[in-house]
Amino acid sequence: MEVGVLGFVIAGLVVGFIVGMTGVGGGSLMTPILLWFGINPATAVGTDLLYAAITKSGGIFVHQKNKNIDWTITGWLTLGSVPAAALTLWILHNLNTDTQAMNAVIKQALGFVLLLTAMAILFKQQLLAFAHKHSGDHYHLSGPSLTVLTVLTGIMLGTMVTLTSIGAGALGTVALFLLYPFLVTKRLVGTEIAHAVPLTLVAGLGHASMGNMDWHLLGYLLIGSLPGIYIGSHLSGRVPDQILRPCLATMLVFIGYKLAF
């Protein structure tokens, strides 16, 4: 096994382990790692999207078995995100005349979304406190306005995830916490995973059709990440969240800043 292949398997193992432990960080860590390995931005994003679709699809069965998915919310999010993903792919495809320009757009977008994700991870508790504090008054939405905001959230996530492969996890969960403060945390996480699978699958297959995919690389990442997720899930809760969260956020700020500026 050559060093490059071993490196990709280890990268999959490390990212899988962190995702298993914290529930976040998949795309946020995997795409920058692939860029560091010298994979071009478009291929890194395309490969990471299908990697996310495969690794998260197992989560749907577990969450559905435990009745942790609100399919109505998933439906409204998907109504916004999948068409937004298709439109973003169409725009990227038409930019394809200049590969360097497309890679530059993806790299900069990646940097900004990483910074946003870091803020979402770092200030998640404060955002949740804000949502719960205001859930009893005029802030609490319902009916058509809540549905429209959910679809708009889907559009925003669909665009960001297709461009950068990042945002469905940390940003999606925080957005849902703010929109649905009364929804139990495990149902929010299950709903976010159920929404992330069709979104990353559509976006990933779209990138693959444009040639932004390395199938061998995808296989190596999965060989590492599947045992990584398994081990991480069993160790979840052993390392305090107060230590993990700032470490993850600091790393994302550093990577995001380097990519964006």
Main attributes of the structure:
261 residues; mainly alpha; 11 helices
Summarize the structure.
The protein has 261 residues and is mainly alpha-helical. Helices cover 82% and strands 0% of the residues. Helix 1 packs parallel to helix 10.
**What fraction, in percent, of the residue positions are helical?**
over 70%
pLDDT under 50 segments (min length 5)? none
User: Given the structure, what is the number of helices?
Assistant: 11
Number of strands: 0
What's the number of structural domains? 1
The largest sheet, given as strand count, sense and whether it forms a barrel, is: none
Write down the Rg. 18 Å
How much is the average pLDDT? 84
Terminal-residue CA separation: 36 Å
Order of helices and strands: HHHHHHHHHHH
Global geometry = globular
Fold and architecture overview:
With 261 residues, this protein is mostly helical. It has one domain. 82% of the residues lie in helices and 0% in strands. The N and C termini lie far apart (36 Å).
List the helices and strands and how they pair.
Layout lengths: L2 H20 L3 H11 L4 H25 L5 H25 L3 H24 L1 H10 L9 H22 L5 H10 L5 H25 L5 H21 L5 H20 L1
